[in-house]
Amino acid sequence: MTKRTAAEDKARSEETGLQLDQPTRQRVEETLTRLGYDAGPADGVFDDRTRAAIRGFQKEWHFAETGYLDEVTFVRLLAIGIY
Hints:
- This is Peptidoglycan-binding protein.
- The chain has helices spanning about 5-15, 20-35, 50-60, 70-80.
- The protein is mostly helical.
- It has a single domain, classed as Muramoyl-pentapeptide Carboxypeptidase, domain 1 (Orthogonal Bundle).
- Helix 2 (about 20-35) crosses helix 4.
- The longest helix has 13 residues, at about 20-35.
């Protein structure tokens, strides 16, 4: 079992605070995939592939690479995904 860090707990809590519903989570996965990140199936389940895709997006945009959505990452992702 992997021990979670305080930073991971904080990032997880921030993502939970966004209160993303299933269709929104699917939209996040679809957008990540369309932008070239392999988020896995757009099923609304943020699994290891989704987490890696979020980290990749965060790295490209010089955000903290947590693998969890915070408000800044979420807004940037959706803003870029709308075209």
